[in-house]
Each structure stands twice: as C-alpha cells, then as structure tokens.
Amino acid sequence: MLGTMPTAADASTMAERQQATPPAWLGRSRWKLAADVVGGLRQNRDKVVQLAGFFHGLVSPALVRARLERMRELGHCDVVPTVAQLLLAARDQLSFGLAEDTKEFYESQGIPWTFHNLRRVVAFPSTMMDPVGLFSPRDTIIHHVLQTFHRHPLYDLLLLRAYDGGLEEMEAQVLQLLQGTHPHQRSLTSLIEDGSYHRRLLDDVREVMDNPHVEPRPIPEGLVDDSHLMLAMDQFKDLRGYTNYASRLDVSPAGALAAYLPVAFNETLGGPLGMKLGQRQLRVECCDPELRARHGL
Predict the structure, then answer these.
(1) Is 101 contained in some domain?
(2) What is the pLDDT of residues 8-54, one digit of tens each?
(3) Does 13 map to a domain?
(4) Distance between CA 153 and CA 205 in Å, rounded?
(5) Lower CB count within 10 Å: N or C terminus of the chain?
(6) Nearest alpha-carbon partner for 43 in 182, 192, 191
(7) What is the DSSP letter of 131?
(8) How far is CA 23 from CA 79, 163, 191, 290, in A?
(9) How far is residue 162's CA from residue 72's CA, in Å, rounded to a whole number?
(10) pLDDT tens by residue, 185-212
(11) What is the reported pTM?
(12) Residue 43, pLDDT score
C-alpha cells in the first residue's frame, strides 16, 4: 500500500562527500509523488515522440555511428566501437557501475530504489531504456540530465554536441526549470534526488559551453569501499572512457543481446529472491591501464 516517503535524517558519507542535499519532495505522500509523474497531453505526447526516436536509433546503426564519428571529430573519443560493443559496454556500465553507485546514493538520501525508479519510468520512459545515450534524440538526453543527480554530467553534455544547438537547448531548459516554467516542471522537480542539483547544473552546462574539452572531475577518494566499483565509475565518467572500454570487447550482436538476459532476471525476480545470474563485475582487462593502476587492479 502506498504510504509516505521516508525522511533523510542522517545523510551517509556518500551523500556528504558529493555535497548533496536532501530532495525537497522527501516526506510527501507516495500517492502525490506518483501523480506528479503522470503528466498531461503535452507531457505524454513528448514521451511518445522520444520513445519513437529511441527505437529509430536502436535499429539505425548508421545514425549511431554518425553521432560517434561526430564525437571523434570534435575530439571527445578516440575510437568508434561497433553497436554490439556499445550494447555490451552499456550492460557493464549499468550493472557494475551505474546501478550499484546509484543504489548507494539513494540509500544515503533515504530514497526507496524500486518506487523511485518506477516513477522515473512513468515520467520519462525513454531515458530509462538507453544507458548509452547514443540511441536517443536530443531531448531524451536533456531530460535525463534534468531528472536525475549527476556527480558531473560531462558524458551527457558532450553527447549533446552531436546535435546542432544541443548545449544551448540544455541551458535554456535548465533556466526554464529554475524559473518554474519548464513543460515538465512538476515531474522533474518531483524526481531529482539532490535538492541543490539544478542550481549547480547551470554552472556545469556553461562550463562545457565555454570549454568543451574540460577534464572530467575526479571521483572522490574513497567514495565507496569496492575497488571494482571505483574503477567502473572512473572508467565510465566520460565518453572517451566508455568508448575505449567498448572497443576492447570481443562480442557479436547475438552475444551482446544474450548478455542482457541475466540483467533482466537480476533486476526483476533476482532482487526479491536474493539471486544474481551472470557476470559479477566489469571486465578489468578492458579498462584503461592508468585507471586500473590507480585503483590497484
């Protein structure tokens, strides 16, 4: 039964080290939080358009390759992996880096994992289907950055350079959100996991607009105890690291798709049953040598 959200009385070390503040919506009724993300005609039309754009990208390898070639021309990556390599790297990023990192952060903020992610699916379904970002239209990337906490959203902001005026549109939508006029204002402010995030985000966007080759911020020392998770966060913190990792994977299209079957089980039945199938950590040998050395792997 839907009740009331917990409050974040005690922030853990992970939240404190990232200077995160409790989200303003903690403590509100879950019924109201669920209603926030449903949206009206305009919002649901946007969801359908973005879903169509995602599926178009998924079946258009030439489009994905063109975006990556654009990124290489702009100096944001060194290699252009195959779609199969991108998909398997996305699985590794999601399963052995992003998901575990996010779970720890949610716990430190008092945010229930399952309920919050269900709300994210309802609010912006396409943003939950593309962990890479390369298969998505521009506004899906923008809404992803606006709806969920990023330690440093450099990866996503650089992806927007593949679209004409992408960063400028990102800046415009952040300003709309801060002014309370964004078309998805209600759901975005009801989803963000850090109460001070949007104010900082505007500075991050303008920093990349001024210097697209800004270095990614280092992962805070000792953010988590798991050295493999620290390596995953470090490897996937920018587009160059992600494509470097992907390019070292030896995988066929069928193999990449098969790798998602254990993920589907782990994220559905596996959780309640306390079971986890398949690979347990990222492929250390595919990570950058200097990062492996940094984390003692």
Answers:
(1) yes
(2) 444 444 555 566 678 888 889 999 999 999 999 999 999 999 999 99
(3) no
(4) 8
(5) N
(6) 182
(7) S
(8) 38, 31, 8, 36
(9) 10
(10) 999 999 998 888 999 999 999 999 999 9
(11) 0.84
(12) 94
Look over the chain and give the mean of its residue pLDDT values, rounded to a whole number: 85
Angstrom distance (rounded) from CA 37 to CA 87:
28
Give the pair of three-digit tokens for residue 87: 């998909």
Query: 279 and 262 in contact (C-beta within 8 Å)?
Result: yes
| Contacts (Cβ under 8 Å, ≥6 apart) of 85 | 246, 247, 249, 251, 256
Q: Which of 161, 131, 163, 162 is nearest to 144 (CA)?
A: 131
pLDDT above 80 for 5: no
Q: How many domains does the chain have?
A: 1
- Amino acid making up residue 195: G
C-alpha dihedral (104, 108, 110, 113), degrees to nearest 10: -10
DSSP 267: I
pLDDT at 1 over 60: no
Residue 96 included in any domain = yes
Q: pLDDT digit string (tens) for 125-162?
A: 998 888 788 899 999 999 999 998 888 899 999 999 99
Which region, left, alpha or beta, applies to residue 268 given φ > 0 means left and ψ of -120 to 50 means alpha?
alpha
Domain span at residue 192 reads 22-294
Is 7 among the domain residues? no
285-296 pLDDT per residue, tens: 999 999 999 999
The tokens for 284 are 């250390």
Residues contacting 127, CB < 8 A, separation 6+: 50, 120, 136, 140, 143, 144, 147
